[in-house]
Amino acid sequence: MTSEPQDFADDEQTPPLPPAPPAPPRELTGAVRRRAWNEQHVRFWWVTGAVVLLIAIYYAASRYYVWSQEKHLIEHGTTVQAEVMGANPFADAPKGQVYSADTAVDLKYTYNGQSYRQHGQLDGRTAQIFSRTNVPLIIDPANPDHWTGRTKASSLVHQMLSAMLLLPIALVLFALAIWRRSQVLAIYRLGEELIAEVIGEGHSAAHPLSRLLKCGVRADSRVVTVLLPSRIAPRVGEALWLIAPPNRPDKAIPAALFE
Known about the structure:
Largest sheet: 5 strands, antiparallel
Mean pLDDT: 90
Number of helices: 4
Strand content: 25-35%
Distance between the termini: 60 Å
Number of strands: 12
Number of domains: 3
Low-confidence stretches: 1-12
Radius of gyration: 34 Å
């Protein structure tokens, strides 16, 4: 007796749908307001603003340090007369060669019986420089290689200019983040629910702990991309709920971000 072959049906089933978000108008709780900062477009603006602000702080701190060191040297240093040897390092020029005020020159001076030779610009100078003539320098008695051609400290405002120019840019970026967050909260509160399926995923260098999900909206077969933390992001083939303005699935935000 032979047994007839049997056909086994696939046991695969459509994954169950996740719980739908509440119907609009949805409550804007404290948690929802906090999580809105992590929506991908909101986060882009405030993260970029934070980076610009950190750069501005770094410039301000570094320039203030240079300015304070220069000011201390001018107030507590020792004045010496240095001979301009020429514009080329360790190459003596004939007497009377003329250089512009911002030219880096070789300077030779003596302190406590020891000779020093340095190359650099005479910061703060506006007059022309003549080779084989003397110019005043202020040196650090504890470290005669540390010198300045200034007789008074430069303007602190001028030193801080680069940082001051970056601050308005950071403020604009933070303002854009706040504006975009208000849009996200409005979408969450009044938007319509859309069921979508994850059809692809990727990673973003700017968001290493999150995944970019390419989602196919079942209602009209459009494809939108959302960002979710890896710990709550569904896998390819799984469903997720989106919330979007009416007839604008391209503006959809993931409902799971606010749960």
